[in-house]
């Protein structure tokens, strides 16, 4: 049997994860079956199971990737840019999927651990940026909550004025920095 290249294997894995992400964003974790992922990916069930043991493994892989893909927040401008990205229509499915992940974290300890890493690492970086605040960690949590709130509001309500929201947050940052 001929060997396949690492790039081929990576492309198939990506194809499965992208298909799963579309299914999860559209139908949620609990209404999506592995068969739905197989159908959406266009890959045989046997090949999908070669990469992932099941749906929980696929969910964990998606959440784990988010940590690696997350933009680092270096300053107020990069934080505001990150907030602006929430309003990009191209990110709508990703926002819906993110809300699904937050809910799943309440049910699954493995997803909670991965999700916490996606909050704790940026929180530590933000606290360092806010070192002049009376309680930098608490202030960092406030700005993470602002991001999470914007994601949730945007996922629920397509009429959210992202630019007005970012402008209001910018005014808050100007008072702190």
Explain what you see.
The protein is mostly helical and 177 residues long. The protein has helices spanning 6-27, 34-41, 45-51, 55-69, 76-86, 92-105, 109-129, 136-156, 162-176. The chain has two domains: 6-62, Homeodomain-like (Arc Repressor Mutant, subunit A, Orthogonal Bundle), CATH 1.10.10; 70-176, no CATH class. It is elongated and about 60 Å long. The model has no long low-confidence stretch (mean pLDDT 91).
How would you spell out the order of helices and strands? HHHHHHHHH
Helix content: over 70%
Rg from alpha-carbon coordinates: 18 Å
What percent of residues are in strands?
Answer: under 5%
Query: What is the CA-CA span between the terminal residues?
Result: 62 Å
Poorly predicted ranges (pLDDT <50, ≥5 residues)? none
SS content category: mainly alpha
Largest sheet: none
How many individual domains?
A: 2
Average pLDDT rating: 91
Shape: elongated
Q: Give the beta-strand count.
A: 0
How many DSSP H or I helices? Answer: 9
This entry's quaternary arrangement is single chain
Architecture blueprint of SSEs:
Blueprint: H1 6-27, H2 34-41, H3 45-51, H4 55-69, H5 76-86, H6 92-105, H7 109-129, H8 136-156, H9 162-176
Label this structure with key terms.
mainly alpha
Structure summarized in a few sentences:
Helices cover 76% and strands 0% of the residues. By secondary structure, the protein is mostly helical. The protein has two domains: 6-62, Arc Repressor Mutant, subunit A (Orthogonal Bundle); 70-176, no CATH class.
């Amino acid at each position: 049997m001929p060997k396949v290249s690492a790039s081929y294997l990576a492309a198939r894995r990506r194809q499965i994860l992208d298909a799963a992400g579309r299914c999860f964003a559209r139908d949620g974790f609990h209404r999506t079956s592995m068969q739905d992922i197989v159908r959406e990916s266009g890959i045989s069930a046997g090949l999908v199971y070669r990469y992932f043991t099941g749906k929980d493994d696929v969910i964990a892989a998606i959440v784990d990737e988010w940590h690696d893909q997350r933009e680092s927040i270096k300053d107020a401008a990069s934080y505001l840019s990150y907030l602006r990205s929430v309003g990009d229509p191209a990110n709508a499915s990703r926002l819906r999927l993110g809300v699904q992940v937050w809910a799943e974290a309440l049910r699954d300890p493995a997803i909670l651990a991965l999700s916490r890493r996606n909050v704790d690492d940026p929180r530590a970086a933000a606290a360092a940026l806010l070192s002049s605040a009376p309680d930098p960690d608490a202030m960092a949590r406030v700005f993470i909550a602002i991001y999470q709130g914007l994601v949730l509001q945007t996922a629920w309500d397509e009429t959210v004025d992202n630019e007005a929201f970012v402008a209001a947050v910018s005014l808050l940052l100007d008072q702190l920095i």
